[in-house]
Design a protein that fits this description.
Blueprint (H helix, E strand, L loop, with lengths): L2 E6 L4 H11 L7 E8 L2 E8 L2 H7 L10 E7 L14 E2 L5 E6 L5 H10 L11 H10 L4 H10 L5 E7 L6 E6 L4 E5 L3 E5 L11 E4 L4 E6 L2 E6 L5 E2 L4 E2 L15 H7 L1 H9 L19 H5 L3 E6 L1 H18 L3 E5 H4 L10 E7 L5 H12 L3 E6 L5 H5 L2 E4 L12 H20 L5 H32 L8 E6 L4 H15 L2 E6 L16 E6 L5 H13 L3 E7 L4 H5 L3 E4 L7 H19 L18
Parallel strand pairs: 16-17, 16-18, 18-19, 19-20, 21-22, 21-23, 23-24, 24-25
Antiparallel strand pairs: 1-4, 1-10, 2-3, 2-4, 5-6, 6-7, 7-8, 8-12, 9-10, 9-11, 11-15, 12-13, 13-14
Helix pairs in contact: 3-4, 4-5, 7-13, 7-14, 9-13, 9-15, 13-14, 14-18, 15-18
This protein binds 5-amino-5-deoxy-1-O-phosphono-D-mannitol.
Length: 613
């Protein structure tokens, strides 16, 4: 989705803002713009397409002696991705500009009203009404004008405003769209849609809450409630990520770097939370009392995309080990059905970003219905973590590639811990078993670390036969069924090959009609409790001449009799196979997309953080 960066301080503003926008590229965008204040006027640059176009269009301005400005990457919602629709948008005088992320739902009526009052619009965007509405109320006091304008607005916004009348001040405001402020005594004040743009300059951040406005100067930030107009005391949080953690570190793509970071991400997620002697699990941020935990009768897992696949795996784990019935919902569907939820239900949202609009709306509804909310999340202080009763953080570090990799396996690690925690609290698992599974969870990180380079080499050779396929199927059974879904999502989103995931046993109920000698099928067939069934299913594919790639357990020579394309993984405890078997699916997708010359980190039409419903 759109990205916002704002800066006021001692540095020259253009490199700070441009650099910040580059760190938000992962969010997806189709046009970009920058504005800064110089010699009593606003200088505005905008262009279609990638940031490099913007950079080329403003060569002369890169070194401008300006110390305050705003930048924006736009992901089109209202109006085509043209230069005219790119942000910043100006009022009639050209002395006030706005950058905006979100959707102004009542923009039609506001626009009509403003046009009747004589305002002249230059774009098709919903955002432009904000500039004219603020202009309408501006009478020397920018904060008052923005507050008044926003009282008229329905919808979501993260907003940055700059006005020539207050050349040392930026205004930021937020409602249902992420916006974070960065502060530093020497460096000045920053605003951004996410943390990475702030990291080179400061680790001190303030998360704006909904309906809050901030006045940002080089000296710091003052936050006000948009409802009462009163000043709000905000906590400044210290972010432990450093800028290097958000850079490519020598890898060709962020996605590949993030695939290789998975062992570390899993270890960091598990570390300190499981006692290696007793197998006892500590999740203090979950904030649920023993009484709350004992009273849970059902669990709803709510998530989107890759995070939804993590939820599907967790259903198997929680039902098996904690004995609690689990329902798994795609967040965008969750709200639109009759929900049988009350205080006996625990709702768990799973989200890398903690900002996904559908998931957020889902937990808000579940909360209203009386459910306790826990969120499994990667971003400290994100909206979801603030609205949930408790949190289990994944410690994957910043994930930049749009395709989720390390966030997914860290979610699985966190959900496995969560399962052990529930099982311990509810007495549904013996300590010995917990200890064993806890050790296996840590072991899986070591196995992945060792296998990653071997797998990547094997896969590089293999994909020459498959990279130009038009379609692909992924099949798996039991715990590996969601991994088949995840593998197919990974491949389609970054390579644009049409791919579907199926439960192996479901093939004969329809999809097997697709199998012929052109159809590649990746089958997950570890030596687990459903191994024989999985083998029967892949034999059915072979009998119809499907082009099989099998991923199975080292030493399983039988797989070689089915197809020559076999990738082997060490045998580990079968409960942890979903984490291990995700790795080859990710690498296969990555290598195919890279071979096809696709924009791996920023696939077309996709955004990292989907903050609109
Ligand atoms: O930030 P979230 O985990 O809530 O995001 C949910 C999905 O948008 C996300 O998992 C998406 O499916 C992935 N980028 C796919 O790789």
């Amino acid at each position: 989705m759109c990205g916002i960066v704002g800066y006021v301080g001692k540095r020259r503003v253009v490199p700070v803002v441009l650099g910040g926008l580059k760190r938000l590229e992962y969010r997806g965008y189709d046009s970009a713009g920058i504005v800064y204040h110089e010699d009593g006027a606003l200088k505005k640059f905008r262009s279609e397409g990638k940031l490099i176009n913007l950079e080329n269009s403003m060569e002369e301005a890169i070194g401008a002696a300006s110390h305050i400005g705003l930048g924006h990457t736009r992901w089109a919602t209202h109006g085509a991705p043209t230069t005219a629709n790119a942000h910043p948008h100006s009022d009639c005088s050209g002395e006030l500009v706005v950058v905006h992320n979100g959707i102004i739902e009542n923009y039609h009526s506001l626009r009509t009203e403003l046009v009747e009052k004589g305002h002249v619009f230059a774009s098709e965007t919903d955002t432009e009404v904000l500039a004219h509405l603020i202009e309408e109320y501006l009478d020397g006091d920018l904060r008052a004008a923005v507050t008044k304008a926003l009282s008229r607005v329905e919808g979501s916004y993260a907003l940055g405003v700059l006005w020539t009348g207050m050349p040392d001040t930026l205004i930021a405001a937020r409602n249902h769209s992420p916006l974070v402020l960065g502060v530093h005594e020497e460096e000045g004040g920053f605003m951004a849609s996410d943390i990475p743009p702030l990291l080179p300059y400061t680790d001190q951040v303030i998360f704006l809450d909904d309906r809050e406005l901030a006045v940002l100067t080089a000296e710091g930030a003052t936050v006000y409630s948009l409802e009462s107009g009163e000043e709000v005391t905000k906590e400044t949080k210290i972010i432990a990520w450093n800028a290097a953690m958000a850079e490519k570190g020598g890898y060709k793509h962020f996605m590949l770097k993030e695939i290789y970071e998975q062992p570390r991400a899993i270890v960091d997620t598990v570390s300190g939370r499981i006692n290696p002697e007793t197998g006892s699990v500590e999740l203090p941020e979950m904030n649920l009392s023993d009484e709350d935990l004992a009273g849970i009768e059902r669990i709803f897992l709510v998530a989107c995309g890759t995070s939804w696949h993590a939820a599907l795996v967790a259903k198997y784990w929680i039902e098996r080990w904690a004995g609690i019935p689990v329902e798994v919902d795609i967040a965008s569907e969750f709200r639109y059905r009759k929900l049988l939820i009350d205080e006996r239900v625990l709702t768990v949202s799973i989200s890398q970003s903690g900002e996904t609009a559908d998931t957020l709306a889902g937990i808000r509804l579940a909360k209203e219905l009386g459910s306790k909310i826990v969120t499994i999340c990667n971003v400290v202080g994100s909206t979801m973590t603030r609205e949930a009763h408790g949190t289990v953080y994944t410690h994957a570090g910043p994930e930049i590639g749009v395709a989720s990799t390390k966030a997914f396996t860290s979610q699985l690690a966190a959900l496995f811990l969560f399962t052990l925690y529930l099982a311990e609290k509810r007495g549904s698992m013996e300590a010995d078993q917990r200890l064993l599974l806890g050790r296996e969870l840590i072991n899986v990180a070591k196995v992945i670390e060792k296998e990653l380079p071997i797998l990547q080499n094997d896969i590089k050779e293999l994909i020459e036969k498959f990279y130009d396929s038009r379609d692909f199927l992924f099949v798996g059974r039991g715990l590996n069924f969601p991994i088949a879904l995840e593998g197919a999502l990974k491949l389609k989103e970054i390579s644009y090959i049409h791919a579907e995931g199926y439960a192996s046993g479901e093939l004969k109920h329809g999809p097997i009609a697709l199998i012929d000698k052109e159809m590649p099928v990746l089958g997950l067939a570890p030596k687990d409790s459903v191994y024989q069934k999985s083998i029967s299913n892949v034999e059915e594919i072979k009998a119809r001449q499907g082009r099989l790639i099998l991923i199975g357990s080292k030493g399983d020579e039988h797989l070689k009799t089915i197809t020559e394309d076999v990738l082997y993984l060490p045998e580990i405890h079968e409960e942890l196979n979903p984490i291990l078997y995700t790795i080859p699916a990710q690498l296969l997708s990555y290598e195919i997309a890279a071979r096809r010359g696709c924009d791996v980190d920023q696939p077309r039409n996709l955004a990292k953080s989907v903050t609109v419903e």
